[in-house]
Amino acid sequence: MACVRCHPFLVPEQASDSQLLLAQLAANLRALRAKDNWTASALAEQAHISRRMLQLLEQGGVNVSLGAVNKLARALGVTTGSLLGKRPMARQDGAALIEQVLATNLVSARRRLNLTQETLAQQSGISRAVIAHIERQARNPSLHTLARLAAALDLSLEALLSQ
């Protein structure tokens, strides 16, 4: 089978949700950067991340925090949730902070399923303390953490991060 880094549009048969998520993010970053004629250096500077981090993200080779993805989405003018999905969508003026959107959606989904933080922790493998911090907007979780929570809530990561 071909390498996902070399052939980003190929989906490995046994890739984890996190690998697929990082591959989708990488493909979107490359496509949006090319569409808008951004150099890697210019986008990294606009997003306030290192050029090396951007390169690693475009290769699908690094887990990243929600904060870094949000910075890139803002620089590219798309919503954070959609940058992780199949079709990045333009960001609207006055959009809520991503931490607030995540906290609201996490609590709503958990309550809709009648799950306590403890039960969600057991189902996702994420500690109750981390879940509580995310719900209080006191933590900048990684995409891997968010993917595990989304899977336990039967949501896509894009849905968890969208208004």
From TrEMBL:
| HTH cro/C1-type domain: residues covered | 29-83, 106-160
Q: Which InterPro entries match?
A: Cro/C1-type_HTH, Lambda_DNA-bd_dom_sf, TransReg_Diox_bact_type
Q: Does the keyword 4Fe-4S apply?
A: no
Pfam families documented for this protein: HTH_3 (PF01381), HTH_31 (PF13560)
> What are the alphabetically sorted keywords of the record?
DNA-binding, Transcription, Transcription regulation
An annotated GO cellular component of this protein is: cytosol
Tell me the protein's name.
XRE family transcriptional regulator
Source organism of this protein record: Hydrogenophaga borbori
Q: What is the lineage of its organism?
A: Bacteria, Pseudomonadati, Pseudomonadota, Betaproteobacteria, Burkholderiales
